[in-house]
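Exercise 7. Given the encoded structure of a 409-residue chain, write a plausible sequence.
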């Protein structure tokens, strides 16, 4: 089988060799130089570097016009290139999820409309264009969230807490940042803990699922530089059924999923879902708790269209795992000087992994959840989920990145 991979996610995050037999299949990795550089030197494959000036699909078609060939599978493991892979499949006549179907799991306006139509609760919402036409007269009385309808990682998201001022604030934001109105939406802000549900679906059926709850928020991580983490909790049959209905509504029938919901008391309110594995150390903690490596099984679904499910149900999740990450992009200095308040926690018996930059290393200037780019990231394991949550709260309250009297631009 000939397989084309639109390669954007660094290889160690996916470990493609665990899901694709590179001796059996002819695999081509197509990506920018930085992504291609993450491929293991000994991996049997073809490496094609694209310029990165246009979309992955446009550059792939240009490459194939000069070097015509056929593929049996076209795969992307990056949320940002799922639609590119779909465009290529449709253009080249390769089987797989369609562009129209995948748009449901990328465009949050269409996504929430589909989930709402299925009978599940979503925040009240509308396009930014509609909001402006209505002069900010929305059918909710609390805070308003402005966000891109196809974004990720809370990029360009803002919360406007005062209803009487929200319209003016959003108008200024549009003017100051020259936002593209057609790319944004507004929605009702709902307070409550945010949970994420990760797993795999095969032919419309959930084959594995794990529930988690965030400590902190993605928006706080991105905008205010506060740490983020999550801890595993019990995945009840009720929540599994709810997740299944949401996935069915947005037509995620095969592969990995990462779904987020706000808990309004005991009621989940659908927030968003991606047809991909979660970021940060979601994959690592999932494997530690269940023995299941989500990316490799997702690749087997995409390549073979099936799984050996016998091993998936043999092991009950070992609850108590959690992951955490500290941002570096908002720090006033660009050089990592160490941590304050970490001495006792660094040597805690609950620490499974503690990944910390070396003093003097350059802090990332971009938003990253990667354990080997962020100033501090790690995994812990306690005897019960609530203890994991409490340990993480202690970590976040005590530990800070060191600041010196000087900063490096």
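Solution.
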């Amino acid at each position: 089988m000939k397989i084309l991979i639109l390669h954007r996610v660094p290889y160690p995050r996916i470990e493609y060799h665990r899901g694709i037999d590179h001796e059996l299949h002819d695999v081509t990795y197509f990506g920018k130089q930085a992504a291609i550089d993450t491929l293991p030197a000994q991996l049997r494959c073809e490496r094609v570097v694209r310029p990165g000036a246009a979309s992955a699909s446009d550059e792939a078609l240009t490459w194939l016009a000069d070097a015509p060939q056929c593929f049996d599978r076209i795969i992307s493991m990056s949320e940002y290139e799922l639609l590119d892979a779909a465009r290529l499949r449709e253009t080249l006549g390769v089987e797989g999820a369609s562009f129209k179907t995948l748009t449901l799991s990328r465009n949050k306006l269409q996504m929430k409309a589909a989930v709402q139509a299925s009978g599940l609760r979503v925040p009240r919402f509308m396009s930014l264009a509609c909001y402006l036409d209505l002069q900010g007269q929305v059918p909710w009385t609390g805070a308003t969230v402005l966000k891109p309808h196809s974004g990720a990682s809370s990029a360009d998201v803002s919360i406007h807490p005062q209803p009487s001022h929200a319209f003016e604030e959003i108008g200024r934001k549009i003017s100051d940042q020259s936002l593209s109105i057609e790319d944004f939406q507004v929605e009702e802000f709902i307070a409550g803990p945010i949970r994420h549900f990760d797993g795999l679906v095969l032919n419309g059926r959930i084959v594995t699922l794990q529930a988690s709850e965030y400590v902190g928020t993605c928006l706080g991580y991105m905008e205010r530089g506060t740490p983020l983490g999550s801890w595993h909790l019990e995945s009840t049959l009720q929540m599994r059924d709810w997740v299944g209905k949401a996935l069915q509504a947005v037509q995620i029938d095969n592969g990995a999923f990462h779904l987020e919901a706000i808990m309004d008391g005991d009621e989940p309110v659908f927030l968003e879902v991606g047809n991909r594995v979660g970021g940060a150390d979601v994959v690592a903690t999932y494997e530690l708790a269940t023995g299941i490596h989500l990316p490799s099984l997702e690749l087997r679904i995409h390549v073979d269209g099936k799984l050996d499910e016998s091993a998936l149900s043999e092991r009950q999740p070992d609850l108590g795992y959690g992951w955490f990450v500290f941002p570096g992009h908002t720090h006033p200095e660009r050089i990592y000087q160490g941590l304050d308040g970490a001495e006792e926690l660094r040597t805690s018996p609950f620490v499974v992994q503690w990944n910390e930059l070396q003093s003097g290393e350059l802090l990332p200037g971009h938003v990253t959840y990667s354990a080997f780019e962020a100033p501090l990231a790690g995994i812990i394991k306690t005897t019960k989920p609530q203890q994991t949550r409490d340990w993480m709260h202690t970590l976040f309250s005590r530990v800070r990145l060191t600041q010196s009297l000087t900063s490096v631009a």
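Remark. The first helix runs from residue 11 to 14. Students should compare their own answers with the one above.
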